[in-house]
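Incident review: delayed structure delivery

Summary: a single-chain prediction request sat in the queue longer than the usual turnaround. Root cause was a stuck worker, restarted by the on-call engineer. No data loss occurred. The affected request and its eventual output are reproduced below so the record is complete for anyone auditing the incident later.

Affected input:
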Amino acid sequence: MPNCPVCATEYIEEKAEFCSTCGWDLTPYPQRSKLAKAYLKKEQVRLQWAKQMWEFARTQLNWSARFDELQGQLQQGAIDRTYLQSQLEWVLYRLEQLNPEAIASTLLRLEEKIGEMPDQTPPQSEVGMDYRQLTKLLETRKWRKADEHTWEILLQITLREEEGWLSAADIDSFPCTDLRTIDQLWQHHSNGRFGLSVQRQIWESAGSQYTEFCDRIGWRVKNNWKYYEELSFSDNSVPGHLPITAWRRRACYGAGFLTASENFARIASRLAACGGSTA
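Output delivered after worker restart:
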């Protein structure tokens, strides 16, 4: 099928008089008549002009469609902006209704609840020591049993279960991770009342004088050195009263070949070397 010379639309030659797309006259020229050259040239100019007008019209149509598209996007953007503005105003309104004091009170209660939750992280050990039993005893505030178990742990780690005491070398080389773990467990479950770091702080404030130190933590009362059975294993014990790591029978006796003063001085020194914090 032939094509329209202006817009290239196909048409049926016998039926079409005008192009259905651009309206160009499709009537064929008489075949036998001789047309003047001037007329043919004029027709060619007219055809060229028609093609240019057609391309211009198509361009205008494309720009019009693009304009409509952009206008639609702008309208949608305006709708979205209005929606977001309304949402923002709603949020601001809700914030204005909130009571700052109530929020602070709620956060405080949440912190207290979180603090009451048991720590699920297993205590750390360099030698594979199991601290679950000690943790359980401390959680249930069975202070005497916890203290006795702490001493058992010290002996197990240093392989001194048969001797029942620690040497200077045992204390000086005690695994730092385990020393910190024991200290942290005691501090955490006593709310900072007991622990090696608590004792170390009191020791330093007493000028590293063992007698003064014992007077402050209840190991010596009215010039009387306490026996182990006389200690106060309660929540109301004076700060630093537990655990007992420098002696076992009586506060002035010590354990092994070291005096109680020498034992605790080495324990405090080892804790400092291991990075144990003062309470």
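Verification: The first helix runs from residue 37 to 97.
Action items: add queue-age alerting; document worker restart procedure.
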